[in-house]
Each structure stands twice: as structure tokens, then as C-alpha cells.
């Protein structure tokens, strides 16, 4: 019964979002506040309906209701509870439901935040948001209904893909989707501004927190996905330039550019047209990512099922929204007023350069991801574009950006002084160079990339801290006063310093991968295998049975210089229902470094094949991303973000609409 | 804060715009150059064993070889050396690989190997991929086999789903 109610709630949400789409738009055309006020109400109702549907599906999973096809295909009565819950979005239908749930959740927040958003803008924004919800609800109801029944109900389910039976599934998709879908709000705001033909610094202030939130979540989501792939797939790699990964990287790059260009727009009322375009492109890339992952164009662990009908439908959504918004842009953008001017050497100029590099880097990822698909469609030739391509194109575009980043942070608004900026960075630059030389001296046999990358990362971190120090430091000043001054700086200044330092951490982590050591060997019990400064000794192999899998557990003792540091377990599993084998890597963390053990086959002579990795500083890659997101979150708590909009609207009494 | 005097030269709006366009042109030009260069150098083609013969692929070429692992062809030796044959409907190519094979590697399974064809006709693989799903057939392999009228994997998969 609950299942049918869930299905009905989805249909109801479809109807309501149609109202939410049409009535407010009509209201803003007719300048009717009553019609406009329909938007927040329906947005909340849509949210309630979709949330109910989501709960209904979750209940079906938790209670193992095998009369529901989706549950049969992706669950099993013996599956642990946590995977029964996360399994709700571990399949195509459920993950699309999560997608619209988050979409309507953002709509709901815009609806509640009525005090800080002018009514016209809110109505238009929610209408655009409703159009997206409408399209995806139609997609779910016509091609991907999670509530389909199966008659007769089988006794048990087919279990979830074992690779997805992991805590990562509980965390990675929700974070990623909040990021992807969060950009729909900036998109909706951009379209709303274009519809009304008015855009100014107030718009930027309203949009910025949303963009920043989406960006921070997307950062975490990508990092989480990368760490999950690292420990689950057993190849020891953290980024494969897989099209599915690129699909999330592209909106991240565009979103990062957007976060920066809205700063220029907010502070200097400049770059308006570009910011609007970027907001549209960022969400378009999110949609493209959804299409690539969900349509089955790519085969990967993410595309749960291949169904051409679905692919065509999402492609349709893609064309309508990207085409529609770009047409709206082409029609309306020329009417937008140009903003303030600035010298090329200035903070604005630096941010333009940032946008230029990020957008270009994003374009190379776009080409590398879509070119093979396009070629296959046109000629049938199958090619693969992998790491070498991106190392040659993406990396040379990102490195100069990172090198210039600290200089940009130091430049003044409107008209900067490059020499002065460089002077303020002498200390950071000197220390980073010194560190590069020291690291190189100690590891001169090793790869050159590592010390250089570590120097770059250090420069980024020191350059960011430098910004805080120079803004609070006075020669011979009182220590207490300086500290007060430093902590009195706006939170957004701290947030940006921390986020950029996070970039530095990630760069150091990536650079250190050049020092990775990998050993391949076969071991019998008691035998040892060395990897870098460490050794692993195979203790025993023990078979074990769990609820839904059997496994052989190999226990290894890790030693350094003959000293035992502890043991790691690594498993080879066979998931009974699907008859599918998986390996679980054994990982020992030492500070920021890891020793990583992956099991292979039992050899003809009875020994155990094994791959060992020593990965120095590898945790910094993901830690850096977490620090970036934390910087973004700190910026969000800035006073300006919270009170700016109402303060500004008080200064604009000419608004013909009654304030909410 | 600095002792430098600000420069007094002012750029006109037009000059500013030109600076911007020049900068954008530079970055885009460099990016385009990199992409074109990388396209020539780093892209790998996919070949089935039949393609290798039909296209007369030269030894020393790097490419991705896809097909089915021939039944009874897998021979393991010490040091985790594995030799097996990858076949399609028409021909088979011997593959040598050292390292851990993916969990789903088994005889009769579709795989994609990346590596170099040696003069002896042996394909030296440095990575072997099988996919994360028991019904999985790499898409390239499936297409190649379907062209040769040899694969009914989808029907098999859907039968399993119905069970």
C-alpha cells in the first residue's frame, strides 16, 4: 500500500511542479504578488511529496518487500541494514529519486528563505527550478519507476552489486548529488535574472552562498568517490580519468570558476554577463554528467543498467535545458548593463585569469571525455583517451594557474601592483624554493616531479597564510592587537585562505604519488615481501562466512626495520547470491602515508599472489579536498552572506513590489 | 603598504578589452595546441584479434585488445606470469601479462587488455581489465562479437533477471 502511495506522491509532485512552473511565471509577467506567492507554497508541497515517495521506497528496502521489482533486483534479505538503506540509491531508479529529492529540497530552502530574496526573483527562480523537477519527475515516472511491482513476488532478491556494498555508497552519492543539483539553483537564479533582464551585485550576493554550498559538497563528493575507488577497486589508484570521474570534474571546474566570478560581481559589479553564462554552463555540465552516467553511454560501475529509452529521454532533457537557457542568454544578455571597469593587473584581472584557465582546463576535459563518444558515433572507430592525454593537456593548464594563484590573492581590487604583490610574497616564495631544494637534495635519485610539486603546494599554503598575516601584521606592533586584527578579518577572507591552502595540500599529496613504491610477489605463510621501507609477512589465511558472502582472510604483519607495527587483513570474497568475487584491500595508515595490500590468485605452487604499495603522504590528496570544503563552509558563515540581501533591499525602496 | 608609486597610465576601455581578448587568445591557443598534439600521441585504438589481422597492426604499436579469454588457454607460471589467448570468432592472439589479474578474470570471460604487440606476435599487456559485474561484457568486446554474430549475452542477462 505504501508503495502505491509513494508512486502516487511522485505523480502528485509532477502535477504540483507544473503549477509551480507556470503560475509564478505568469505572476511575474502580470506583476501579481498573489500568483507569485504560489511559488514558495508549491515548492514546499513538491518537497513533501517527493520526500514521502523516498521514504516509501526506503521502507520497502528495509522491510525487504520483494513484491517491488527494484528491491528484488538490488537487495537481499541477508544484506546488512546499512546497505539496505544505502541500496535505495545504489541503482538507477533510486538514484534518480534521490536526485529529484535533493532538487526539491533546494527548492524548499529557496522557498523558506523568502526574507532574503526579492519576491520577483524568488518566483522566477522557483519556476525554473520547477521546470527541472518536472522534467526529471517525468523521466522517473515514464522510464524509471522505482515502484514497479513484480508478480509473483520472488522469495528473495538478487542482492546489490558487491562493489557497492560499502560505506562509500552511503556517503558518496548524496554528497555528489547535493553538489550537482545545488548548481541548479545558481542556474535557476541566472535564468530568472535573464527573464527579468535585471542583474546586479544584489543578485550576486544572493546567489553566492548557494554556489558555494554546491561547490563545497561537490568537492567532498568527488574526494569521497576518489577515496572509495582507491580502497575498493584494489588498483591503488585514486584517479583514473574515467569518463564518469570526468563527468563530475567538469562541473567542479566550472563551479570553481563560478564561485570566483561571483566574487567579482558582488564586490565590483563587474563580469555580469560572464557570470550568468558560467552559471548556466556549470549546471549544463552537471546535466551532461547525469546523462553520461545514467544513460548507459558509458559502461561503468555507475551505469547500473543500459537502456536506450532512458538515454534518449535524458538527452532530450539536456537539449531542452541547455539549449533553452543558452537561447535565453543569447536573447537577453545584450540588454544587461556592463559593470565596473578595472585594470588588467588587479584582483579582478587575476580572477578573470583564474576563470580563463579553469574554463579552458574544463574544455580539455570535455574534449577528452566526449571525443571518443563522438568519434564512435560518427565513424564506429573505438578509441580510448586516458591519463597520457590529460597529463599533456589538463596538467599544463592547471600548473600555471596554481603558480599564479598566490599572486592573485595578494593583488588589490581595481588597480593592483604586481611588483608590490611579488614583494609581499618574497618570504613564501623563498621558503617554498628552499623546501624544494632540500627535498630534492634528500631524494635526488627519485623523480623530479615530487620535489617540484611539493614546492608548489607549499607555495600555495604559505601564500594563503601570507594573505592573513599581511592583513593583520604591523611592524613592531602589539602581538595581542595583531591577533585580534587577524581574527577580526572577515570569515570569507579566512575561508578563502583555508580553501586555497587545501589546494596546496592536495597538490603535495598528488606530487608525492611520484614516490609510490609497488611490489609484486608471491608469499607462503611466514614469508616476507618488502615495499619501500616496509616489509609485510604473511601470517595466515583463514576462511570465514558472513551473512551474504564467503571470504578468505589473509593476515599480514607489517614491519619496519625488523620492528612489528601491527597487522592488516585483506580479503578475497565471494558474494553468494551473484556468484561474484571481489577483493578487499588491506590498508595500514602511518601518519599521512599508507601501506596498501591487494590480494591476487593462489599460485600453482600454493603460494599467494600479492601486490603491495607504499604510498607516502597519499592521505593529503583527500584531506586537501576536505580542507577546501571546510574553507568554503567557513566563507558561508560570513556576516555578509547572511545579512547582505535584506540590508541591500532596504537601500532600494524603489522596488515596486511589497516586501514579504 | 608598499613603497611603489601606483602607475598613472590609464587604459581605455577598448585597450582593456583587447588585453583580455589577447590573454584569452593565448590561453585558448596553447590549450588547442596541447589538445591537438595529445590527440596524435596519446590516443589508443581498440582492436579485436580479427582487427589486428585485418588492419595489419604493426609490432610495437600500443593499443587495446579485446575479446574472450580462450577456454583452456590460461597458463600461470611463477612470478605471477600469465599467458592466455584472447579470441574472437575468427582468430586468437596470445597475451602475456605479469601481475594481479582482476577478480572477474576467467576463461570464457570478455576482457580488455592494454599493451604492445611484439614482433613475435605476442601481445604484451601491462593492464588487463574485466568488469565489475557478473553479466559484464566490455562494451567494445560485445560490439565486436555482435558484428561477427557471436554474442547472445544480453539475452542471457535478461533471462537471469527474469529468474
TrEMBL record, chain A:
It comes from the Bacteria. It is found in: Cell inner membrane. Residues 315-639 form the Cytochrome c-type biogenesis protein CcmF C-terminal domain. This is Heme lyase CcmF/NrfE family subunit. Its main location: membrane. GO terms for cellular component: plasma membrane. It is a multi-pass membrane protein. Residues 89-295 form the Cytochrome c assembly protein domain. Required for the biogenesis of c-type cytochromes. Possible subunit of a heme lyase. One of its GO terms (biological process) is cytochrome complex assembly. One of its GO terms (molecular function) is heme binding. InterPro entries: CcmF_C, Cyt_c_assembly, Cyt_c_biogenesis, Cyt_c_biogenesis_CcmF. Keywords: Cell inner membrane, Cell membrane, Cytochrome c-type biogenesis, Lyase, Membrane, Transmembrane, Transmembrane helix. The chain crosses the membrane at residues 6-26, 38-62, 96-113, 125-142, 175-195, 207-229, 249-266, 273-293, 313-331, 352-374, 394-413, 425-442, 448-465, 492-515, 617-636. Belongs to the CcmF/CycK/Ccl1/NrfE/CcsA family.
